[in-house]
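Risk register update: the risk of archive-format incompatibility is retired. Evidence:
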Amino acid sequence: MPDYIAAIDQGTTSTRCMIFTHQGKIAGVAQKEHKQLFPQPGWVEHDPLEIWDNTQAVVRQAIGNQGISADQILAIGITNQRETALIWDKNTGEPFGNAIVWQDTRTKELCDRLAQDGGSNRFRDQTGLPLATYFSGPKIKWILENVKGARIAAEQGNALFGNIDTWLIWLLTGGPDGGSHVTDVTNASRTQLMNLETLDWDQEILEIMNIPLQVLPRIVPSSDPKTWGITTPTGPFKSSIPVSGDLGDQQAALVGQACFSPGEAKNTYGTGCFMLLNTGAEPVPSKSGLLTTVAYQFGEDRANYALEGSVAITGALVQWLRDNLGLIKESSEIEALANSVEDNGGVYFVPAFSGLFAPHWRSDARGVIAGLTGYANKGHIARAALEATAYQTKEVLEAMQVDSGVDLSQLKVDGGMVVNEMLDAVPGRHPWGTRCATKNL
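Archived output:
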């Protein structure tokens, strides 16, 4: 009887469950989208209860469609959209409002206040991160200051914080009935509250942000054979299975692309675009607007670190053209539309819907379409949208080469946009192709 591993991939736009054999072959898969909520300009939210419902649904579907018994699943791993934050009542499991998504910019004024003493790099030495709306810490502070009942519950020990990995692990392992409240080092490194040297919550930053320690999860390695949670028979797996792996989505891609040696890099083309370079066992400070982050930690081994260039909007721009403008009906149609013109017709797109991330870190930036004339048509706009991904990627690559001192000769790539041959062929803008798993630069 074969044994399996279950992987839950909770992303920005959908949740997926995949069942793998011991040989790494896919034995079952299911995926379901969730709603993107935009209650105000610059605000982006997800319903955490919808995400939990979808997680349960895809788990049951992935297992049930292939006739796999839950007793055959040896362990569960989770990867998740990073920096998307929520706080919930630990006694009931009821969230204090929707999750605030990593793209959300509502904490700009809060970040500006924090930067008045020490500037935007106030916490960079400890955390490797600039003050920005991107990260979870300011979102926690915003919830505690603005959502009724959250502050009191947190100070009384009745509230829990988590990125989406923590939320799902807590629910899978029992929720209010003894659920495991943990996060791994990669997700913790995206909160702006974890010290990169100690791999623990930084007490000084917690005091400055006025965040109670008891609301935060325990930080654990990305993978640990001793495990830190067992699923309950009342959950979607209907069996007791160890949750043994947890990685933020971009670090999971780094591990999945086997970038285990310093100097190896990957780029993921998804909702946003994220390039990570393995820098080894020591964190490398960035001078070019990149992030210093934890790459992974396995068991009791030392943590490995990475430099990261984060771009907020790439694939999400295609979705915006589809959902908000109705320019296309399916995301896959963007390539044909972009190929309907010979060039961009002088049209350029800066998709700063959530500000600009690396290497600029301007949360006040907003999206711009420039160069419009009466000649421009929807094909030019589609082409400019794909070129925007190429331009932003090239800018991050150049910053990474400056910081690392390494001329990258090879880059491993993945993500939903890699099927787009038009993006692969943008001349003079994109320094490599994207269709294959590995590209020589």
